[in-house]
Write a structure and sequence with these properties.
- By secondary structure, this protein is an alpha+beta fold.
- It has one domain (2-141): Roll (Nuclear Transport Factor 2, Chain: A).
- The chain contains six helices and six strands, in the order H-H-H-H-H-H-E-E-E-E-E-E.
- The longest helix is centred in the N-terminal third of the chain and has 19 residues, at 28-46.
- It is globular, with a radius of gyration of 14 Å.
- It starts with a helix and ends with a strand.
């Protein structure tokens, strides 16, 4: 896990400096499928649909929180920009140590810029689910 965190920090630094990743290591249809899952989860948060948001998380996340209500309450309290983003922009997904990670740039209600990194997990049925979210505050404000 420490290795993954170190890679996440390097990715954040690269995104801040390069402003984007050069290429998508996933097939276009896979990148679209990953994006749709995250968009659906963000939409579920916007509608306070705890059950839907929870259903888009991996089984490990679901077991960790135990209920959709506890999950959405944690997001509401600790991930306000994910719960109610003012803007959302997807960068190209990347593969880090075999893990698909989807970077998403967001702004919060105060216009502060954030980078949300979503590790994704493919399910046995071929669908994707979110496996957490790491947030990093980006310098500056968005307009």
């Amino acid at each position: 896990m420490a290795s993954f965190l170190r890679i996440v920090l390097l990715l954040v630094a690269a995104l801040v400096q390069a402003d984007a990743l050069a290429q998508t290591p996933l097939a276009p249809e896979e990148a679209i499928a990953v994006r749709k899952v995250i968009e659906a989860q963000i939409d579920a948060f916007r509608q306070d649909d705890a059950a839907k948001a929870f259903s888009l998380a991996t089984q490990a996340i679901q077991e960790n929180f135990g209920s959709a209500e506890r999950f959405i309450e944690m997001v509401r309290a600790s991930y306000a920009v994910v719960y109610r983003p003012a803007t959302v922009a997807f960068d190209a997904p990347v593969v880090l140590e075999g893990q698909v990670v989807q970077p998403v740039r967001m702004t919060d209600a105060q216009g502060r810029a954030w980078l949300a990194l979503y590790p994704m997990q493919r399910q046995p049925d071929g669908t994707w689910r979110t496996n957490g979210c790491q947030l990093a505050r980006l310098p500056g404000q968005q307009v």
